[in-house]
Amino acid sequence: MRGFAAFRLLWLGQALALLGREMTWFALTLYAYQKTGQATTLSLLGFFHFLPLILLSPLAGALVDRYPRKWAMLAADLGGGLATGFLLLLYLLGRLEVGPLYLVSALTGALSSLHWPALSAALSAMLEKRDYARASGMMSLAESLAGVGAPILAAALLKPLGLGGIFALDLVGAGAAVFSLLLVPIPNPRLEAREKTSWIGEALFGFRFILERPPLLGLQLMFFGINLLTTLGSTVLPAMVLAKTGMSEAALALVRSAAGLGGVAGGLLLSLWGGPRKRVHGVFLGMALSSLALALMGAVEGPSAWAVLAFLESLFIPVLNGSNQAIWQAKVPLAVQGKVFAARRMIAWCANPLAMLLAGPLADRVFGSRYGQGEGIALMLLLFGSLGVLWGLSGYLLPQVREAESLLPDAKEDQAPAP
User: Fold this and answer.
1) Pair (140, 241) in one structural domain
2) CA 356 – CA 182 distance, rounded (Å)
């Protein structure tokens, strides 16, 4: 089994593992909040997950390019299963406290830093270039299906099965991922002979590769900017919904479910369509249209209107990400995709924690204190969403970015620039 047929089996295993992980995350969120009654606990869970994910990405990318991608993915999936097994053991012993949750959150973040570049590089090796965007759409679909289905399933099963049952289902998903990986052949790139370099040298190689190619650097700076602007809005969106609906959990659930469904629809659209022939159109217009929906959420009232716009905002994200992924897969040699993709993600994702640090004080002390909590946050959505529209369209004014696909040659399968 090879090509897209092998990818479908791999996708199924990864989708089941993702569903299990998301169910565990949802259940742990409820457990941690019930245990402490503090929102800070939840924010710390996210922080401990995100920090190693960013900091370890370059080193993880170097590791992915030194060893078979299948090994890296197996290590990440097995590690995630062991982490869940550790939580299950503590739960059965009656010793599951908040402290171990932070530890496991950090561990899963570190494993995610390894898994993503390994998976991205593996798909490049398994598939023809014409299938890159379609495969990316299917991966976005898996993420969106987990985003929609995991909270519903976890909420429905938590009472009859308990937290231990959710952990057990997560272990089943991890087992499915490992089993599918063992069955699927993943080609390893042919590396040209070169001197051995240090881990630091290999980790920095991804950044040098991007800096030496202005079109790729420009694309990644576009993503840094859009991540900064949209995260400034999306971080405080739940607070706006709750403030304007009298703390209605149902309203917030409606908006989040609609966003998940939009991601599912966008993933299906890209899987069937494959994206625009000129990929940068998918990037720039995806940024602009998604940001427009975010901006309009600040201008309308009511859960139904917010849900429609949340659906539309998420609808364009798979097209945006899939189009960008297809460009990078075509332009970066297989042998160094692990390092380059890890550096690429670190550049773009550095904006997220910065935006998260700014969004809360802006909502509480600047916009909220002047206009009220709900209306102040709505103004933030309108402002930063509108800036996101302008940012996305500004890509058409930058020739190096607009013509990235023609300015950069496609990478050859056996091409491997020396670190």
Assistant:
1) no
2) 39
